[in-house]
Amino acid sequence: MSSAWGNKVKISVFGESHGSAIGVVLDGAPAGLKLDMDELMLNMGRRAPGRDKAATQRKEADIPNIISGVLNGTTTGAPICCVIENTNKRSGDYGNLLTKPRPGHADYTGYVRYNGFSDIRGGGHFSGRLTAPIVFAGSICRQALKQNGIEIASHIYSIADIYDEPFEPVEIGHDLINRLNEKSFPLIDTDKEDKMRSVIENARLSGDSVGGIIECCAVGVKPGLGDPMFFGAENVISSVMFGVPAVKGIEFGAGFDMTKMRGSKSNDPFKYENGRVITTTNNNGGILGGITTGMPIIFRAAIKPTPSISQPQSTVDLQSGENATIEIIGRHDPCIASRASVVIESALALALINL
Amino acid sequence: MSSAWGNKVKISVFGESHGSAIGVVLDGAPAGLKLDMDELMLNMGRRAPGRDKAATQRKEADIPNIISGVLNGTTTGAPICCVIENTNKRSGDYGNLLTKPRPGHADYTGYVRYNGFSDIRGGGHFSGRLTAPIVFAGSICRQALKQNGIEIASHIYSIADIYDEPFEPVEIGHDLINRLNEKSFPLIDTDKEDKMRSVIENARLSGDSVGGIIECCAVGVKPGLGDPMFFGAENVISSVMFGVPAVKGIEFGAGFDMTKMRGSKSNDPFKYENGRVITTTNNNGGILGGITTGMPIIFRAAIKPTPSISQPQSTVDLQSGENATIEIIGRHDPCIASRASVVIESALALALINL
Amino acid sequence: MSSAWGNKVKISVFGESHGSAIGVVLDGAPAGLKLDMDELMLNMGRRAPGRDKAATQRKEADIPNIISGVLNGTTTGAPICCVIENTNKRSGDYGNLLTKPRPGHADYTGYVRYNGFSDIRGGGHFSGRLTAPIVFAGSICRQALKQNGIEIASHIYSIADIYDEPFEPVEIGHDLINRLNEKSFPLIDTDKEDKMRSVIENARLSGDSVGGIIECCAVGVKPGLGDPMFFGAENVISSVMFGVPAVKGIEFGAGFDMTKMRGSKSNDPFKYENGRVITTTNNNGGILGGITTGMPIIFRAAIKPTPSISQPQSTVDLQSGENATIEIIGRHDPCIASRASVVIESALALALINL
Amino acid sequence: MSSAWGNKVKISVFGESHGSAIGVVLDGAPAGLKLDMDELMLNMGRRAPGRDKAATQRKEADIPNIISGVLNGTTTGAPICCVIENTNKRSGDYGNLLTKPRPGHADYTGYVRYNGFSDIRGGGHFSGRLTAPIVFAGSICRQALKQNGIEIASHIYSIADIYDEPFEPVEIGHDLINRLNEKSFPLIDTDKEDKMRSVIENARLSGDSVGGIIECCAVGVKPGLGDPMFFGAENVISSVMFGVPAVKGIEFGAGFDMTKMRGSKSNDPFKYENGRVITTTNNNGGILGGITTGMPIIFRAAIKPTPSISQPQSTVDLQSGENATIEIIGRHDPCIASRASVVIESALALALINL
């Protein structure tokens, strides 16, 4: 595994879905940051499942136990370790013998990579539950960024083929940001919530799942951040973003649609506004040549359908060496995309604090 | 800048568009690799402009002068430095005073990032010309990978709204790979070439440019490569890929389209075939949980329209502090996407040798 | 802080002397390693203070609570997090206002580096107590190395001006290694123990402290490990070794004494022995050009006198801005060097597993 | 190989002793630095052999050809590549078959590490000649540091058993620094020069070589630099310093001698002086807990005797598999330590710019 990441500010994520606890060490965060624990717990809650039918039924309190690096509510500059107990893990004995890898999961690849020793219970270290430590660490970075005028928000851009309105790329208002930051199911056009939830519920009822796209932004980022060619803003953001389970694509600004534009349209014209250089469009998503322009950073991350479904699926039996069928009994999370917003925002915070 | 990249095998790219030379140091490549210089020069040529009207008219010989790390045609294990002379640079005196940053380019962000000292002549270190050293270094890695049975290919998936056929995700034949590897303008369905070239030529005639998508694959990759969460195959590939100028998005396997599938469709079923575990579909693009599955690695990179166009554009005058118009005189490259294939392939080779 | 280290196998150390707990995440250790917990606890015990008068009187159980990465006693390949509770921390309220920095400690430099926010209680994250997580992580690496035939040992080379016998550089027997590995106060010539303890006790009685040198070796290391110029064996070993508090120097093989030899003496002649290339002397400490020779790796680390002493010392009062005197009341550890052996061995294990 | 190093400012060293050229890429150096080429050439000259009998007779012009990253004499922020031609390489045909590895050299370990493919001509990439690129890159960093008030100097602390005066640890005057910076054979007590040269000449006449110690300092370093535990000042300095060929030990401040002090002596008392916190002694060499104190950084590096000697030595014949004797004909460099000063200074500059 290499669950450690970062250059200036580093994280080291640990834990398994059905181990005693999960957590993270955040190393290099600035000293003297007074933590807003309410905001941090709000973010932890936005990620946590069990709030409504759109999520898995496993209920976790997700209480972060900060065991180092914070004194009297303020960061000391020393590594911050947070441990989150797994309160809801199944208590019985576990075997750890992988016989039938679940399609779409990392069961098989983890089995090959770790010579059959990876913890397969509930996905082990590959579980979506490991996004909780990312939210914890990212939330702290986010508070540090906020002190420098940088704010982050995201919304559910799509669930299956139901689309929200996109961010207005040139200017994203603080009211919208604040509103999105409070929601577990953040949408620009809240009228889309019923349709999206209905699509998710339909999938759930048929033992199936759906995917979606998260659109995320950062405003207040100064121009001039990023170290091209290979530690530019896009490199760093994508490098951490593909650490979020189920992310299969990322695009900045107009992204893939930009390939259908002509340069005369896709080039963002410069203009002075109140003495500041801005661009009048933002097809480049706030990044040119890997360096921030000062315009909103905007990107979208594609989240595949939750691989856990309740239908019979074709697989192999690694013990018998024969083809087989697997059927997973029990409730499942039909759409991890629907609560990935705060995870994507947190991963962005980790990236930005490293620029 | 941080034009150095890599963990096991590292590159350090240097040079400017109108400096004396460009080049790269490749550090950590395996010793004892007998270089196939014909293949290497074929790749250099596939990238080089000036072959046809689809490219810029600047003709560069792009002769790689290997000055270290290779003895008697074989790698020694010491760093390989390659210097490529800029034979075609303009010889006159240069000022270096950025007055009007070109929209879509890194002129403005480089100016801010480097306090006004960046070399702006022809884009300086941000120039697309800097992809030549990437092709050089990647080609050597590619030869090392080939010895381990790994082959890489790509094709022009789209130019503007003209699409080639996609790769067949489960099995990509060696004949196709070999055919694509020889082409500057690689297509699966060669009937699309005329249409694509016509779109490019139309853009050029109106002083404009177009973008496109490169689809790239690697076959023969063993299962079990990649170090999740943050040094998984997708993290590492995207981290280097966004170092290629003009890349604005990347998606693996079915990518963004996967978000519209249901899990029962997107999960790739496992199956034994000739004693080997395969998947009967490959929506995950050969990567599950950041680890290779043994199926073809498939991804697509979005290349924005060449920002250099010959039309008047709105910008600012950084000296006078006023809004302004810029018009670039001279021939331009109307579609860098059309010769990005070998660059994307080379960057993939650099990523794979680091897994 | 940057308490994270490592390239292939990474550690991230966290905790403060008087916080709730200390610990470490070990990321990238091999999967399938069956942990020998008795040996691991033996190492934890060798480091722990409170065993005899040569150490501080603070008694810590130092029970490592493994909360991830190990299942049924075997490593899974996922990050291993270990938390060690601070059972003996003072329970009263703490201020955190640094007024008088202790000479020789990191109080002042930490104050400057972390803008006055570092946890100063008992040294905070700079405390020698933080060597416990290093021993934990290093002990696991050591068990992995042992499976590959590599064994590590060390002894107290000197305390003040009392010297033990040095390692015989060309061949270090398994009996000696095994004997040293069991001791808290490891010596080649055990007759020196009384003298050394007497020097330490004398210092303690006068409220003072003494330093010493640890000599450490690794045998069974294959030739050909290390990546010069900058990730050679000496670079990597020294890079981690200076993370051990109080280390002020390191020398390999004959080290500083080698500067007084002539080349005809210091050059280690090669010779075939049982079909294997050996050197008949080992002034280079098993490393040539940054790469292991196959001979024992031998180095010495200088450990300065424990900075905590019970005598009045001159310092400054950072609040009043005036010169001041500080006198620390209470028992102190008069010689951290005397129990640094297992820490140095553990740090070496971390280095070797990264070569 | 891993001849790339650095976190913020990176170097990638390339070339072989008898290849066409050697050089370095310096990536991440600040933009806008006006290079003082005279000072840079002075440093190149201080390293270059052939000036007197104390050095090897190979005469190299060592002209650095800067091919990128500098425009109009000023750094642009882009990677700086410097190529230094090997003007004096032997022109005949070369075999590359290692039969008899030279004792004390990396011939044998390089052979094993690179499977017999390493370039053995003149030591290849392991040659002391590769310190020229380090001096080039370090000299640029040094000029950037100087703008921030940091100055570096060193002197030959010892050759064999002849010792110069040590630096006065608490205050090192600018006059001394300036004087040392101009010398190829820098000494505090210049009366020692004759004795040292005589020792070197005696060794040379008997076909032998001697070692020595370089003492190096940096003054003007602000307090508060360094990221403990593992990227503290000592870790970073030692990590790059062991990349200098022939370095076998490093000690900071009083170093190994500190182990013989009592804490009451070795602890450096704090004191206010002109409103600034200083220490009245500097046994810790300007570093406490891995963080700079603001006092002079002082360390010593042990340089082993040049392994190239002209006497017959015992070795093995790797082709025949039998013990053998090797005798190297021709003039040799009897004391690389005597011109290592500027290399050590340059490596320190690389370290400091990364803190």
Note the main attributes of this structure.
homotetramer, 355 residues, alpha+beta, Chorismate synthase, AroC fold, 5-stranded antiparallel beta sheet, 8 helices, 18 strands, 23% strand, globular
Task: Explain how this protein is built.
The structure is a homotetramer of 355-residue chains. Chain A has 355 residues and is α+β, with helices and mostly antiparallel strands. The first copy, chain A, has a single domain, classed as Chorismate synthase, AroC fold (4-Layer Sandwich). Helix content of chain A is 23%, strand content 23%. Chain A contains eight helices and 18 strands. In chain A, the strands form six sheets. The first copy, chain A, has a five-stranded antiparallel β-sheet with strand order 1-2-3-7-4, with helices on one face. In chain A, strands 9-8-10-16-11 form a five-stranded antiparallel β-sheet. Chain A has a two-stranded antiparallel ribbon with strand order 5-6. In chain A, helix 6 (233-241) packs across helix 8. The two termini of chain A are 24 Å apart. At the A-C interface, strand 2, strand 3, strand 6 and strand 7 of A face strand 2, strand 3, strand 6 and strand 7 of C.
Ends of chain A: how far apart? 24 Å
Low-confidence stretches of chain A: none
Q: Please name the fourth-level CATH homologous superfamily of chain A.
A: Chorismate synthase AroC
CATH topology of chain A: Chorismate synthase, AroC fold
Q: Helicity of chain A, in percent?
A: 10-25%
Main CATH class of chain A: Alpha Beta
- Output the strand order for the largest sheet of chain A: 1-2-3-7-4
